[in-house]
Amino acid sequence: MLVEINLLPKRERKSQIIPMISIVVAVLLIVGATTFYFVIQHMEQQISQLKTELDQTKALRIAEEEKQKTASNASVGAQLQEAIQWAEQYPVHTVALLHELIERLPERGFLMSISYARDGAIQLTAQFDTTRESAAYLQALKEASFIADVKLTSLTAVEGKAEEEGTMPRYIGQFSLQLNMEEWKKQQQGGET
């Protein structure tokens, strides 16, 4: 039998695990980078598509707003024209009307507030020293030719201040009037006062 004697040191076998791991890691990195690249490309396409849709939506919204502005401007224009026509047909000079209402007040009567509606309805509040003065004012308004209807809706007594003992109460009268538009128009054109 033959015996082999090898005096040379035994070579250690290089481990093939490290190169294999390196190759697997390299392949995984290449696959990951490629996947990442394609995902990024897909997302950029989606973003581009969404931006295009957003721009189209903005353009549609602006077009709709312009349509609505045009329609509302036409509507506002028509309303203004209608108001102008009404004002030309039924001119009520409020300064002259106030003058007429104040002129009929008794000496110690005061006009506190007045509101006027388009249809000629007038609500006014006046202060008087006595109930007789409020009745006299009501009668004066009834006799005015430019007033179609007048009512005393309420009469309230208001006490004076606490410091002023012995003061007489004041009376606050609420009146509801209906203006006779035709008569008022005649009167303003130089008719009777």
UniProtKB/TrEMBL annotation:
The chain crosses the membrane at residues 20-40. Keywords: Coiled coil, Membrane, Transmembrane, Transmembrane helix. InterPro entries: Extracell_DNA_Util/SecSys_Comp, PilN. Residues 40-67 form a coiled coil. This is Pilus assembly protein PilN. It comes from Anoxybacillus flavithermus. The lineage of its organism: Bacteria, Bacillati, Bacillota, Bacilli, Bacillales.
